[in-house]
Amino acid sequence: MNWFTGGSSDAKKWIGQLTDPTKRERAAQELIRLGAEAAPALIEALQSRDPNLPPILGRILVRIGPAATPALVAALKSAHPLVRAQCVDILAQTKDRSALPALLDALQGEFYTVRARVCAAFTQMGTPHVIPPLLHALKDPEPEVRIQAALALGTFRDPTLFDDIAGLLLDDQKIEVRQGAARALGGTRHTAALPFLMEALRDSFWWYEREQTASDLLDAIEAMGTDAVEPLIEALTDREGTVRKFAAIILGELKDVRAVEELGMALYDLHHEVSRVAAEALGKIGAPAVDVLAEALSHAEAGVREHAILGLGMIQDPRVAPLLIGMLQDPERFVQKQAILALGGLRDPQALTVLKELANHRSDREFSALARELLNKNA
Q1: Which whole-number Å values give the CA distances from 138 to 68, 70, 128, 149, 176, in the listed order?
Q2: Domain boundary among 126, 143, 160
């Protein structure tokens, strides 16, 4: 244990026993009993190369509580950057506000990992006094600091701060920072944040190759709950297909019946993906959407019929099975196949009977094999 240069000899002895599972509990209790006397040695031991030891040391320091604060504060000025970051995390867990001046000083320090951890700490122990430094941190050159500052500011749920957070959401060049800003605004669950999130939804930054990264933004709008339904319904008519697609996805997660009619119109969208996700959204809404989906089964466009079947297959309702069975006579084979797949997802005796008939219909090997696979899957 040659990484010790300070602290009491008792503390060093007990720290040395933390690596032994049979002695760990006793050693931890003794270190907690020593309290402030053990804190310097515990902090220095955070540099251990044993990856299992620092979390144990951290938990002990948290248990020691405010008595460890002076040693943790001292480490913020002199310890290795990684140890400083760990000390910040520990102070955040103790929630000892006497450490706030030292944490604010660390927020101005040279190590970005420490600055980011300080911002994160303020999500747990922040007071209004930390808001100005956090606003300044939104302009930090390091993306991770900007992310954590936005998340910390979001915890205050203060609408006067939303415009500053939205500055990152709408203008930052780093996608991960925009994602963090979306999480921050969504986490407020405050209606005043919704216009900023809807503006971001219409921002082409999220389209095309970045669509896969938009989940944080979509989740943030979903977190607004029923307040988001009307703006999302309006977005279903946006001129950009990606915006319409995103709106349909969120409406499906919200499962609000107010959206049924407009999602039904979106089934006929010329953008294939919009039509598909609208069908899935209606499927998630469930029984109130059956009639709208059923109407689309007679559409001239085979893709629309396929999507309507997809949506119906998500709904456990006695009206669904007869509709899907009828679509087995569709002139397009891929539509028939989608009907078989949808029947396989129903818990309906009529669907089971038809699947058994198809499984025994050996003249069509593809559909027979598909029916058998579905029956085996549901057995």
Answers
A1: 30, 29, 16, 6, 14
A2: 126
78 is a domain residue: yes
pLDDT tens figures, 51-109:
999 999 999 999 999 999 999 999 999 889 999 999 999 999 999 999 999 999 999 99
> In whole angstroms, what is the distance from residue 115 CA to residue 149 CA?
9
Distances (CA, A) of 222 to 54, 156, 207, 208: 38, 20, 18, 21
Number of separate domains in the chain? 2
Establish if 242 belongs to a structural domain. no
In whole angstroms, what is the distance from residue 221 CA to residue 244 CA? 14
Last residue of a domain, one of 73, 108, 126: 126
Distance of CA 66 to the CA centre of its chain: 33
Q: What are the distances in angstroms from CA 333 to CA 6, 293, 324, 337, 340?
A: 78, 20, 14, 6, 11
Domain that holds residue 364: 331-379
CB 300 within 8 A of CB 272: no
